[in-house]
Design brief:
single chain; about 45 residues; mainly alpha
Length: about 45
Amino acid sequence: MASLTQVTRKRRQNKAAKAGRAAKRARVKAGTPKFPIHPQKKQSS
């Protein structure tokens, strides 16, 4: 069985890793839209 200290450290590590994941996903989805790599050139007359 793991010691209480090890259990606490693991819990804190997991919480730190999971913190902000939902916010990060939201930022990624609402970020800069994808732009076309080669936009059509305008014809000069």
